[in-house]
């Protein structure tokens, strides 16, 4: 099997396992997802999902959040790490949404990345989940690890890893694979104990049973 065939096989196997991968962050509108991805930096989705119901009740829209006092925002998010910085980002994000984008979450990478607290990775999540747009790959700690183990990249820098993935896979598959690789890393190809025995990719993975 040459490299092209191997990449096609990886795509097929991941598509079978994750036909419709979704973020595990809970949200019911684009504004809520932007808040959730800001809160999720260096933090588990599970913890974010625990605090967002109360947060969204108190700050249901960008205008309410933009007008809120930072100290009050902190109280609602104090159980997540870096909550001081995240409170500032949430406030800045809401102000930018209201002042520059008329309270509406924009649908381009460029505009999303102008929101405080939203870097390329988060922007990719928002574009994928809300707008069905694949501009690249979400490269988080799971995608970094799985891509390296699968021999799809030798890079450590997320921007370079994303470029390697964009070169390896067909653009039409980016959206699905972006979500699928995150979930595969979270539940099967875990950091400490990858479950190679039950991994659907174990016949096409150069690291199988070697990690
Ligand atoms: S075979 Fe093992 S190392 Fe390779 S992707 Fe699967 S779980 Fe990860």
Automatic annotation (TrEMBL):
Residues the entry annotates as binding [4Fe-4S] cluster: 189, 196, 199, 205
Catalytic activity, reaction form: 2'-deoxyribonucleotide-(2'-deoxyribose 5'-phosphate)-2'-deoxyribonucleotide-DNA = a 3'-end 2'-deoxyribonucleotide-(2,3-dehydro-2,3-deoxyribose 5'-phosphate)-DNA + a 5'-end 5'-phospho-2'-deoxyribonucleoside-DNA + H(+)
Pfam families: EndIII_4Fe-2S (PF10576), HhH-GPD (PF00730)
Record's signal peptide: none
HhH-GPD domain ranges (all copies): 39-187
Enzyme class: lyase
Name this protein carries in UniProt: Endonuclease III
Originating organism: candidate division WWE3 bacterium RIFCSPLOWO2_01_FULL_41_18
């Amino acid at each position: 099997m040459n490299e092209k065939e191997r990449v096609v096989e990886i795509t097929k196997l991941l598509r079978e396992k994750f036909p419709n991968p979704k973020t595990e962050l809970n949200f019911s509108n684009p504004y809520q997802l932007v808040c959730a991805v800001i809160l999720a930096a260096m933090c588990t989705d599970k913890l974010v999902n625990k605090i967002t119901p109360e947060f969204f009740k108190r700050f249901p829209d960008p205008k309410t959040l933009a007008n809120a006092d930072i100290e009050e925002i902190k109280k609602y998010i104090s159980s997540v790490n870096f909550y001081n910085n995240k409170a500032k980002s949430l406030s800045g994000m809401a102000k930018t949404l209201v002042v520059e984008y008329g309270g509406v979450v924009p649908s381009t990478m460029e505009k999303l990345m102008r929101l405080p607290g939203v870097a390329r990775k988060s922007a990719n999540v928002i574009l994928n989940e809300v707008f069905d747009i694949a501009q690249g790959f979400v490269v988080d700690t799971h995608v970094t690890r799985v891509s390296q183990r699968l021999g799809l990249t030798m890079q450590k820098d997320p921007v370079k890893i994303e470029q390697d993935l964009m070169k390896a896979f067909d653009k039409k598959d980016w959206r699905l694979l972006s979500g699928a690789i995150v979930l595969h890393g979270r539940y099967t190809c875990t950091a400490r104990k990858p479950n190679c025995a039950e991994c659907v990719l174990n016949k096409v993975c150069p690291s199988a049973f070697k990690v």
